[in-house]
Structures are given as structure tokens and as C-alpha cells.
Amino acid sequence: MTKAFRLQLLAAFAAIYVIWGSTYLAIVFAIETMPPLLMLGARFGVAGLIVYAWARAKGIATPTRTEWKNAALVGTMTLAAGTGAVAWAEQWVPSGVAALLVTTVPIWMVLLEWQWKRGPMPARTVWLGLGIGVAGILLLVNPAELSGGDTGMLYGSIAILLASMVFSAGAILGRDRELPPRPLMSTAAQMLTGGASLTLAGLLRGEWAAVDVAAITTESWLAWAYLMVFGSIIAYGSFVWLMKNASPARVSTYAYVNPVVAVILGWLLGGEELGGRVLMAMVLLLSAVLLITRFGGGRRRPGGRTARIARVLVNRGGAILSAFAHSMDAPARSMPRLRDSLVALEQVPLRPGVRAGGRLPERAFEVAEIAGAVLRPRVEHGRDADGESASHVR
Predict the structure, then answer these.
(1) pLDDT at residue 140, as a whole number
(2) What is the pTM of this model?
(3) Residue 160 banded pLDDT, cuts 50, 70, 90
(4) 69, 161 in Cβ contact below 8 A?
(5) Partners of residue 383 on adjacent β-strands
(6) Domain of 287, in residue numbers
(7) Is residue 94, in this structure, part of any structural domain at all?
(8) Which residues does 167 contact at the CB level (< 8 Å), separation at least 6?
(9) Residue 155's closest CA among 305, 293, 354, 310?
(10) CA dist 153 → 146, 158, 168, 220 (Å)
(11) pLDDT of 16-34, one tens digit each?
(12) Staple partner for 195: which of 44, 296, 330, 384, CB 3.0–4.6 Å?
């Protein structure tokens, strides 16, 4: 490995670590004076045109009709629904919290691969990761405060979780559909179609009426330009290059670093709260991502030191979670009331100024209810549904 290549490798990792982690805060600054969906539509539309021109300059063929259609489906699910919902939710949800909620993508990927695509049964270690991830979500959103009237935080958090699920489904579909064979052109096609979907959604929501170019601040313009140039072109270009020049396992480590960067930047530059609950949720969610991405390929036995660590986590994980839950005043002890809280919240109106275009689907409440039910036996009794020790993870 030459020194020049090593420096290029370092710069590429720095791009996907820092730039992608900083996009959450950049979105907050951009939507201060820009409507979220139209802002993202312009971001991906302009970035898509630049990447498309770049691909054509390299002699890459234009996509076929089928490839355009499939790129539109994947781009709409990942960029429009996935990223668009996050930008909408960040009107109320702090950027660091949003980044942590997005770390649930590996959780959705495992569940969708298993149930939707009939993939292999997840290993016990993965189930432990799923349980830890759900615990982190519940701690982050704080179920004890769900009926406290902070509807913006509630609906925003649910929107991000559902967006992560749709993003995961789109990513899985992208593996099976016929897309442009060259990554650069595939990226351009998804950005262009995803940007078009975001623009259409923004127009249907009436965001154009809220656009006042003269009122858009320099800070918002700079944030938008940063998202377009650095987030959509430089960082993603670095990601594509790394996938060819580094192992996928090393590249996937951005999933551990991005939320940490987002939380720290939100605290330093965005004035966001960085309390013990957020830090503990970050530890739980990143631990879940580590377990799921490490052992997410079905039933396989880890070896060496990893095997010993995994056995300790599996055998003691339930007890650790139970002890942690009982040490916290709010989240775990409110699990028995989660269903009642969610039912009551269905009657709580959105805050003034939240243009939801109707309530979120009731399925969102079912998802949260199921998540609470998963942890309830361990939290309340330290035992699973079969009456066995909580350390037994199916």
C-alpha cells in the first residue's frame, strides 16, 4: 500500500464518517427557512444532475427504460420516503436523536430479510442485538413522557422509525431489481427520481406557498449547498470508491461513527441537550448495530475472542437489560402502560404549525406497541414468555 493510496483511503473514510454524520445538523439549519421536502428535492435533483453529467462524461451509457423505472422505485423509497421523513421530523426531533433513531436500519434489514424475503433465521446473537436496539429506542423516545403532550417529538420519532423501515425495504429491493450496472449512473438515476418524488410531495403538501426566497437566510443556503456538494456528491462518491478498495466490513463501520458525530455536533453547534439518557441510548443502539451487522448473516457460529464475547452477551444480556431497566425511573417501568399511552395519544392533536396532511397511519402505534411487548417480560419479571430465565434469548 503506497503512501498516496493510504492518504486517499484515510480521506475517504473521513468523508463518510464526518460528512455523513454532520448532515443531520445541516438539515436542521437548512429547514430553518426552507420547507423540508422541497429543500431535499432541490438537493438531490441538482446533485443527481451533476453526477449524471459526470457519469456521461466518463462514457457510461444512459439507463434503459426498465432501469429508470426501478431506479425511481428505489430512489423514492430510500431518498424520498427515507430521507424526506427524517428532514420533516427534524422540525421537532433533535438532529442527534434523529441520527440515533436511523441506526435502526440494521434492525429493519434483519427482520425484513427474514420475514419478507424468507431469509435465514437470525442467530441468537442477532436476537440479542434486536432486543438491545428496541431498548435503546424506548429509552431514547422515553415512553413515560409519551402522554406528556410533546406530540412533535412523538410523531417525529415514529416517522423516523417508519422511514428507516421503508429505507431498508428500498435497499433490499435495490439488490433484486435491474438497475444501471455502473454505481455512478445508478446513483444519479436514484437521486434524480428521488429528488423528483420529493419535489412532488412538497408541492402536494403546499410547501411552495411557504417559499420566500428573500427570507431564506445565508445559513440555510450554506447548509443546503453543503448537503448537496458534500453529503450527496463527495461523501457518496467516497463510499462508492471505498466499496471497491476496502473491505465491506471496514466500510460498514460508518454506521457506528455517524450517530456519534451527529450527537456531538448537535450538542456543540446546535445547542441540543446531551444528557445521560441520550448517551445511554447511544451505547445501546450502537451495541445493537455491532451485534446485528457482525452476525446478521443467519445462523453461524463466531469464533475466537468474538465467540467468548458473544456467549457472555447472550447468556447475560437479558439480566443486564433487566437490571439497567430497573435502574431507570421512566422507560422500563412505564412498559405496562405503553398500550394505554399510545391509545390516548391517538386523540392528541398535532402542535400548531405541523402540516401533517392527516394523521400518521395507526400501524405506527402498533409498531411501538409491539416493541414494548417484546421487552416487557424481561423488564418486569426478568423472565421470558415461557417462564425461563431472561438470559435465554430466542
Answers:
(1) 79
(2) 0.70
(3) very high
(4) no
(5) 389
(6) 8-381
(7) yes
(8) 77, 78, 81, 82, 83, 105, 108
(9) 354
(10) 9, 9, 22, 22
(11) 999 999 999 999 999 999 9
(12) 44
Give the least confident one: 90-104, 134-148, 210-224.
134-148
Q: Are 127 and 394 in contact (CB under 8 A)?
A: yes
Q: What is the pLDDT of residue 176?
A: 81
Residue 388 lies in a domain: no
The residue among 39 and 297 whose pLDDT is bigger is 39
The C-alpha cell that represents 101 in the structure block: 433513531
- Answer whether residue 387 is part of any domain: no
How many percent of the chain have pLDDT more than 70? 72
> Up-side HSE of residue 85: CA atoms within 13 Å toward CB?
21
- Joined together, the cell numbers standing for residue 210 give 411557504
Handedness of CA 215, 219, 220, 221 (dihedral sign): positive
Our count of domains for the chain comes to 1
Q: What angle do CA 77, 292, 97 make, to 5 degrees?
A: 60
| Whether the predicted pLDDT of 138 surpasses 60 | yes
